[in-house]
């Protein structure tokens, strides 16, 4: 199988980490496909023009990181924990990613068409999500699950694109979650390139 990725996509990073965590490296190869370049391989596999996109051996393509992650997890002999509570956390983590990526896209547009409204609205959503997740993780001890992985990737994306976000301030539960994931080989080996 082939996973179309971009080194800077947090959605692709989640799947790349999962492949390593589930020991599926022999089953899935990574191909670079920058979504803003509209490459033919990516658009043929995914008309949405987004990464990640998993092309199965039979040619069928799976799009969107939660679906791909679920498929990969089902393939594994040692899957990560997943239940409805974890799926709820995964959805919150995906929402955090959506807000952070949306904020980033807005901020790299031409300054003449900036929308302070959308930047600020996404920032407020990010802060609300962080506060909610901080509360959620007060009672969660198991981090090897889809929800915590997605959230750790989101926190890493905030560090990557918004290093002055100070998301750690007053959020010890999230800081501990992040430290637990960011010390893993799979997390470190998928760091986005510096200066990208």
Discrete helix count: 8
Number of strands: 4
- Low-pLDDT stretches are none
Shape: globular
Could you state the order of secondary-structure elements as H and E?
EHEHEEHHHHHH
Largest sheet: 4 strands, mixed
Ends distance: 27 Å
Average of per-residue pLDDT values: 94
Helix content: 40-55%
CATH third-level topology of the largest domain: Glutathione S-transferase Yfyf (Class Pi), Chain A, domain 2
User: How many domain regions?
Assistant: 2
- Which structural class fits the helix and strand makeup? alpha+beta
Q: What's the level 1 CATH class of the largest domain?
A: Mainly Alpha
Spatial order of the strands forming the largest sheet: 2-1-3-4
Q: What gyration radius follows from the Cα positions, in whole Å?
A: 17 Å
